[in-house]
Amino acid sequence: MNVARRLLRALVFAWRHTLTPGGKALLGASMAAAASGALTLRIPVYHLFFALGCVFALSFVCGVVLMRPRIEVKGSLPPKASAGRPVSTRFTVRNTSRFPVYDLGLGYMNPPHPLEPLNLDRTLPRLGAGETGEIQVGINPPRRGMYSIPPLRAFTTFPFNMLRCDRRVSGRGSLLVLPSFQPIVSIDVPVGRRYQPGGIALSSNIGESPEYIGNRDYRPGDSMRHIDFRSWARLAKPAVREYQEEYYCRVALILDTFVSPGRKKAREGFPDLEAAISLSASVADALSRGEYIIDIFAAGPDLYVFRAGRNIAHFDNILEILACVDECRENPFETIAPALVDELENITSVIYVLLDWDDTRERFVRTAVEAGCKTKVVIVRDGGPSEEFVHAEDWAGQIRALTPADVNAGGIETL
């Protein structure tokens, strides 16, 4: 069974990458000649089949045995890319053999789905012994995620441009594809301030700073950092400095990743989930331009929490988290709601990006409402929700429905 799978993989690799477009056409002509020659020997069509076979054999011998490239390569792909935007770089190649190399190219053969190799048809006509040149190599990542990149391979299509006879010239790498998103100008969400215990540890150098408001007598449990030794020496008893308490605006962005187990995953993933992740990136981008502390929650089997804003972490870190979010196949809302309650005590406003609306999601949203948080709900879904907003009258004005096409098309200036 393993031998059959390896053979099948080798044949698929040969068809996709080893054969050039001209080689595929010639292989088709060879098979047609073989089929015609098998019908009768009176017409010498089989002569054509043998002639084409000799051309293939000559290409293989020249490419693999005689002209297989021996080169050194310098360069690498960027470690990050954006979904739907091809990424490429120019590699410097040096011929280390004593003979020239003709029709030299570079490429990432057989990358994982859905990555697509680019520029496989761009080759250097000739690279002499000891000479250097540059070749541009690229990959098109249509969808977000973390991908393992296959080794870079150098190949030659000499002499008939039918076969790519290659050699590995680098090790494996990785490519983090960040989700694409359309910028949003502003978000209409009520904001306020709540006390943050140990707030200075959560803030940057902008916004509210702790203010010294006076001294008081030392009490057991006070931090040693706040002891005022000058006042202690003057008063002959311990004294500590007092500072103004910290209040910040914290906004929680909660992403729904629950996909019904009955849905089958397409090659491009789940369009509504991908659109919801893209919208979450747009919301995080808009919030990161303000002086908010942003808490990112991914509602999956566990409650994943990531805090950003005010120089705690940058927007690029948020994109890295969203790039690796996977769908959840079991309803998680009942189990993660208690964990969310603990986090909501210090959060001012909550923005939900949901994939549907039903009883469990409504109770999940009411968790934030009952905790005193201002709430906005955005549902990303084709068609209407599974249930109407019957019990959501008290925050119905803060619910908005969008389709994946609306999110992907952009043009949402205010949310």
Mean pLDDT: 82
Order of helices and strands: HHHEEEEEEEEEEEEEHEEEHEEHHEHEEH
Largest sheet: 6 strands, mixed
Which CATH architecture of the largest domain is right?
Sandwich
Strand order of the largest sheet: 18-17-16-19-20-21
Could you name the CATH topology of the largest domain? Immunoglobulin-like
In total, the number of strands is 21
Number of helices: 9
Helix content: 25-40%
- Structural class of the helices, strands and pairings? alpha/beta
Provide the domain count. 3
Distance N to C terminus: 54 Å
Shape: elongated
Describe the structure concisely for a colleague.
The chain is an alpha/beta fold and 415 residues long. It folds into three domains: 178 residues, Sandwich (Immunoglobulin-like), CATH 2.60.40.10; 34 residues, no CATH class; 162 residues, Rossmann fold (3-Layer(aba) Sandwich), CATH 3.40.50. Helix content is 29%, strand content 27%.
